[in-house]
Amino acid sequence: MSIPQLIAFTIYLVLQGVIFFEIIRKNPWKTSSSINKKLLYSIFLVIYLCFNFLNIFIILFYKSIAWWVREYSLESLLYAIIIFAIIMSSPALYFIFTYIFKKHDSGSLPVDENKRGLIKKIALSGLALGVPITYSMYKGIKDLEITSLRLPLKDCPKSFVGYKIVQISDIHCSAFIRGDYLSEVIHQVNNLAGDLLVLTGDYLTGMNDRKYFPEFLEALKKVDSRYSISAVLGNHEFWENQDDYVEQALTNAGVRVLRNSHQVISRGGENLYLVGIDDITFKRDDIQLATSGVPLDKLTVLLSHNPDFIPTASKYSFSLMLSGHTHGGQVQLPFIGPVIVPSRFGRRYAEGLHKMNDSYLYVNRGIGVISPPIRFLCRPEITKITLDREVT
Q: What is the pLDDT of residues 89-131, one digit of tens each?
């Protein structure tokens, strides 16, 4: 158990201890002659204790039961537990409130109609919150969406009309993004029958997640042989100086890693120039070095993890720039859109297709997550872009 987990677990135990003490203090078996109150109290206490034992068991032994959950498709059980936890926490907080701010001479449970109505409203509110939060944590983060578009480019040579570029981004290998899900991602990639697979950065989140990275490398072995694979690094690779490690691991897996460099893809005697830069967050980008020898009046595709590079890309007249980084905000609200987007342009380049001058930009929402590990109205994404020739 990591230090943050240990701290959270300790806070959880202390909180539940206070709640349990308050519940015991209000024991109607000692303070009331009503058999209904006693029976309801007993049922509540059994449910409450079972809930806490189950919660503690999952926290402490999740790794040992994870295979069991996957094997028997019991994700719905986890949904139910979390929903129940949120519902139960609200009345529990109410008990703390009465303990701190009110004095009950009788010590019995508050059972008048107003308080019953309050608990009912709190429970219903907890349910309304619990369902989307639970879905976002355990289903939303893996609810893959395939985005396909045909993009007419004025520089597209005839040999590259119909050429398919498939993009995945922001894998963020972690306890939430594991091998089974990554294998499904690659399965979907293979179904798209593309020509080039590009990876646009952030394979890890932090040093502690490095142990999960081999699961992504294992999944990459399943990529159909029709694909060539190229990649750039993201800001998280530089965050804890893991760029060289990730580059070497990807290279060993057969991936061409472009670090302020380019490659030429030939087809039918004509060329596509694929350029990749290191992430701009840590000022490791060198566009002049990357484009040295590249004819910018030809078909050029730039891989830049961060979409904030688009003003510079448009000055160099790249035909297309592919980015990730933003995750689409991870959480989007109806009528509002992304809540938080890590970009100096705000929500302008949060996701999707954009154009600046003669350069197109596509921002992929990524297939992984960072904390908190939720996606709401913002599905993980695989992109397939089919090149076409612009009719003039």
A: 656 655 655 555 454 444 444 445 555 565 566 556 555 656 6
pLDDT tens sequence across 247-265: 999 999 999 999 999 999 9
**Which range, of 40-49, 140-149, 158-167, averages the lowest pLDDT?**
40-49
Quote the radius of gyration of the chain (alpha carbons, Å). 26
pLDDT recorded at residue 142: 87
Summarize pLDDT for 303-314 with one digit per residue, the tens.
999 999 999 999
Note the pTM of the prediction, 2 decimals: 0.73
CATH, domain range 146-389? 3.60.21.10
Residues 348, 283, 240, 244, Cα dihedral to 10°: 110
Of 252, 242, 254, 260, the closest CA to residue 202 belongs to 242
Q: What is the mean pLDDT of residues 220-242?
A: 95
**pLDDT of the residue at 125:** 59
Beta-bridge mates of residue 214: none
| Residue ranges covered by each domain of the chain | 3-138, 146-389
Q: Count CA within 13 A, CB hemisphere, residue 389.
A: 9
Rounded Cα gap, residues 270 and 218, in angstroms: 33
Amino acid 115: pLDDT: 56
Per-residue pLDDT, averaged over 182-192, amounts to 97
